[in-house]
Amino acid sequence: MSAKENWPSQKITPDDLLKMAREAARRSYAPYSRFHVGAAMLFEGDEVIQSCNVENASYGITICAERSGVVIMVSQGKRKPLAIAVAGSHEDRDDYMTLACPPCGACRQTLMEFNPDILVVMASKDGAKVWELRKLLPHSFTLDPD
Ligand code: THU
Predict the structure, then answer these.
(1) Nearest-CA neighbor of 110 among 145, 68, 75, 82?
(2) Is residue 8 part of a domain?
């Protein structure tokens, strides 16, 4: 079955979720890289949490949009995101909705912690594309390998 057939909502489409990620990217705080990233995480009951990257003058403590979403999610008492859309681009460009913004390795591992079956939505020239995190991060770290 393709990732799109496993989509967990009747109400919110992958394109809808990607639009919400793009909207969140507009709120990004990225004065150093000028690369604005937004994420939108979908939960049971069609609830959505939006988040963005937050940079710092001490560059290394910057937090990515996806991981800032996980911080919000856990703080709000949620533990199981069903899907996440990520949209991002440099502020000089105008291609948020056609160019994929793939989650970095650290964010993939962080999402894996909460739902190995999560679906990841990224832009493409043909609209929103749905991926399985398992396939984006094969053989991820675990304390309990089999
Ligand atoms: N960034 C994210 O928000 N998510 C990722 O998965 C990778 C990168 C942010 C971090 C930084 O603020 C900017 O993109 C450029 O690296």
Answers:
(1) 68
(2) no
Instruction: Assign residue 103 the CATH number of its domain.
Output: 3.40.140.10
For the chain, how many structural domains are there in total?
1
Q: How far is the CA of 55 from the centre of ligand 1 (A)?
A: 9
Which residue CA neighbors atom 2 of ligand 1 most closely? 64
Domain-embedded: residue 3: no
Is residue 7 situated within a structural domain? no
Residues 30-46 pLDDT 10s: 999 999 999 999 999 99
List, by residue number, the catalytic residues: 66
For residue 116, the 8-state DSSP code is T
In a domain, 141, yes or no: no
Q: How far apart are CA 121 and CA 97, in angstroms?
A: 11
Query: 3 near 130, Cβ under 8 Å?
Result: yes
Q: Which residues constitute the domain of residue 43? A: 14-136
Which residue's C-alpha comes closest to atom 4 of ligand 1? 64
Residue 64 CA: which ligand 1 atom is closest?
3
| Least confident stretch, 37-41, 89-93, 110-114 | 89-93
pTM, two decimals, is 0.96
